[in-house]
Design brief:
192 residues, alpha+beta, OB fold (Dihydrolipoamide Acetyltransferase, E2P), 5-stranded mixed barrel, two-stranded antiparallel sheet, 3 helices, 9 strands, 21% helix
């Protein structure tokens, strides 16, 4: 009877230890999934993440800090020394893709030492960049001048353009309606 109790305790100890190991592996997996999946070498180097909101008031304070920011391209300018992308920042999802419909913290400028074609890197294209903050840049919006953070982009990911179809009711988002007799059920802007 006593040996059966010891076996039961040993089995419970092994199960408990296995559960603890699986819990820590799961927590590590969740934390690792927060970093953009296509910039793992950059995400691993970031000790303290710096947001655009933190860097905006005093970009020179964060000079040299490695960041992964993204958003929508507002303007692409090619100069002798390279290409400047003016980007409207958007928060990134778990994959590192800029999320539409969320509040932006403003704009930043990304400098890329090389040529980027403005026909490809055109306004409203989503982009994610990894690079180091290199101080501030003056930009003009309308008739006002603003100081925004500037990063030297070491890596750029240009996201595929999202396709929207058109129905007889206007643009649609890919929703397929179900036909039932004389009526259409689903959203008004249906694709078929």
């Amino acid at each position: 009877m006593r040996s059966g109790y010891r076996v039961q305790r040993a089995v419970m100890y092994v199960v408990k230890s296995l559960c603890e190991v699986l819990l820590w592996v799961g927590v590590g997996g969740v934390l690792a999934s927060c970093a953009p999946s296509f910039f793992p070498e950059y995400a691993a180097q970031i000790k303290e993440p710096v947001s655009l909101l933190q860097a905006k008031p005093n970009p020179t304070r964060y000079t040299g800090s490695l960041v992964i920011w993204g958003g929508k391209i507002v303007n692409t300018t090619n100069r002798r020394e390279g290409t400047y992308l003016e980007v409207l920042e958007l928060p990134l999802d778990a994959e590192g893709k800029p999320r539409e419909g969320y509040r932006s913290d403003g704009r930043f400028v990304a400098f890329y030492q090389g040529f980027l074609d403005p026909a490809i890197y055109h306004p409203n294209r989503k982009v994610t960049l990894a690079g180091r903050i290199q101080g501030a840049e003056n930009i003009t919006i309308g008739e006002t001048t603003h100081v925004v953070p500037r990063i030297n982009a070491e890596r750029i990911h240009l996201w595929e353009e999202e396709k929207f179809f058109t129905s007889r009711y206007g643009p649609c988002d890919g929703t397929v309606c179900i036909h039932g007799g004389w009526y259409w059920w689903g959203w008004r802007h249906c694709c078929w």
